Amino acid sequence: MTSLKSRLSGNLNRHIMGWLMAMPMALVLLVFLMAPIVMITVVSFWGATEWSIYPAFQFDNYEFLLTSEVTYRVFLNTFKYALITWICTLLIGFTVAYFLAFHVRSLTWQIALFLLCTIPFWTSNIIRMISWIPFLGRNGLANSALISWGVIDEPVEWLLFSDFSVILAFVHLYTLFMVVPIFNTMMRIDKSLIEAAVDGGAKGWQVLWYVIIPLTKPGIMIGTIFVVTLVMGDFITVRFMSGSQSANVGRMIQNDIGLLQYPSASATAVILLITVLMVIGILLRFVDIRKEL
Amino acid sequence: MTTIPKIRYSRRSMLKTGAAAAAASTLSAPMVWGQAIKDVTLRQFGTGVSNLNEVATKVKEDLGFTLEMTALDSDSVTQRAATQPDSFDIADIEYWICKKVWPTGNLQAMDTSKITNYDKIVGTFRSGKLTPESVIAQGTAPHTVGFTIGADGKEFVQEESGWMTLIPTIYNADTLGIRPDLIGRPIKNWSELLNPEFKGKASILDISSIGIMDMAMVVESMGEYKYPDKGNMTKEEIDMTLGIFTEAKKAGQFRAFWKSFDESVNLMASGEVVIQSMWSPAITAVRSQGIPCVYQPLEEGYRSWGGGLGLSASLSGIELDAAYEYINWYLSGWVGGFLMRQGYYSAVPETSKDFMTADEWGFWFEGKAAEGDITNPFGTVMEKAGAVRDGGSFYDRMGAVACWNAVMDENQYMVRKWNEFIAA
Hints:
The complex is a heterodimer. By secondary structure, chain A is mostly helical. Chain A has 14 helices and two strands. A two-stranded antiparallel ribbon of chain A has the order 1-2. Chain A is flat. Chain A starts with a helix and ends with a helix. Chain B is built from 16 helices and 19 strands. Chain B has helices at about 10-25, 30-35, 55-60, 75-85, 95-100, 180-185, 210-220, 235-250, 260-270, 280-285, 315-330, 335-340, 350, 360-365, 395-400, 410-424; strands at about 40-45, 65-70, 90-95, 105-110, 110, 145-150, 155, 165, 165-175, 175-180, 200-205, 255-260, 275, 295, 300-310, 345, 375, 380-385, 400-405. In chain B, the strands form five sheets. In chain B, strands 1, 2, 3, 4, 9, 15, 16 and 19 form an eight-stranded mixed sheet that branches. A five-stranded mixed sheet of chain B has the order 12-11-13-10-14, sandwiched between helices. In chain B, helix 8 packs parallel to helix 16. The interface of A and B includes residues 138, 160 and 246 of A.
């Protein structure tokens, strides 16, 4: 009897303790994540004049957004940037992580080289991005070098203020977000599995394809989520590297905010959020990250 | 830090007590506050052109109080003036921004009887006419949004009512900037911006209210259309104008669009662009790098802009008095001279004359050939002896204004179309 009682109260205590321990995080998320999102959603139904916004419940913002051909073009462009950047960062990120994890044998060197990868992150990403501009310009280093080598006669124009420069900057900025999670999962692969595969007669590429890649999937997926969400939410890289000539969803929101059209910006943000959540939802179908963590 | 009683009237109580309170606050001019004014801090924000630290330093020296400056781009300035009235005491904004922001009630009108040099402010900002013969240009001309009915007036009035919304500070006539060394032939018309000869080497600024006016100048110059009023286009006119530019954009006419001053300087200096919309000091910035750049006067005339200081509606008591003192000081010449030596114009040019050398005055204002080297306020040599200002004298330039930066009735529609142009 007493033992049952104490066990019950113990359970209850543990229950309360659990809730209490989760509370700070839950509060932080509630205040800094949920509340703003709710607010944005609410405002997205409001109306706006040129200088003010007024509470209302109308679908004007969504109607304008979803019926404008520009919206679809801009979303398509955003997906294009995300997809190409994802492919490039994945290839580079996987290769770098593979090299670090399997080719570099000593732990000291692994750590040293890994830290080397993070050095560019010691400066702000705006600076890293803008430094491309003098390099890629019409009379920039890249063009003068190519001309002096005799590769080209006329400066190449598409190096700067083009989709090329936008994606180049994205890849430069976000590859590390791919390297880190992939490297992390690779380090945890049991080396004996690879030995077993080799003993079983697998060739190099077979080990890569049938052993390493399947085991690295969670890392790839985490990296993918990082890169895709970062690229889809970006506005400043697209603005600077395209010379304001291309648009993605982030720039559309930024323009609206600049022109005091908060409700319309909120509506775009809500649609973007839904889109990104759908993308992540699909990604998570492929790998159960929680099981792998 | 000594504690100074900060007397803050609420705006409402001021209005209630009406004339009596107004009279009281007029009487309580500087001497009553005495030393207390030295501890006042005024927060000013505005576009980079006139938010210069030198001005803040000089204010501390001459007036004793502290002026904090924040420089932002035009969009952010509008946004801040319209949405965060308590974040500033003085707004340094352009007249077209004033048209947008004034109805929010975030600014208070200024009593012109307290402005010492009011009578000397150039006609453009009072009657709208630079000289009695002048024709008023299209667009948001400063005098149309420069006056209101009273301290808390919400409506603009067309005559000099004694209550000013903004005290004009600086203004200029804008045109296209070109790289003569890379173009190699004379440029005379706005239409050259879309000339296929400059394919991939042209640029326009990505600030809709200003950009649309540059576009209108180009469209008229091409002979495509004559606007009844460029400053207030109909939806069809907006579609047509942006249609022409969208076509040019798709054909690769533009290298980039710029939004901030620095971007325009870099585009021009690096040779990415040879012809573009530009602001006067940006030209000077390119030129001071030793790169030839001309602020090309064009046959169709200039697109002009003007800025002024507005007071936050929440300013009262000693801060309000300090603000008036600051404004009177602003018009008394030192700032004018400082700005005119960078190529802008001061609202009260005659007071600025005392703060410039005869040669500087001759070069910048009268359009005469420089007798010696012309330096800017920071000591950089801008022009060598013999040089003449692009466009000539004050009256030649400001007298040839074809339109002012504007906010149209169809502004929201225009803005949406502008976004589509950028995304095209």
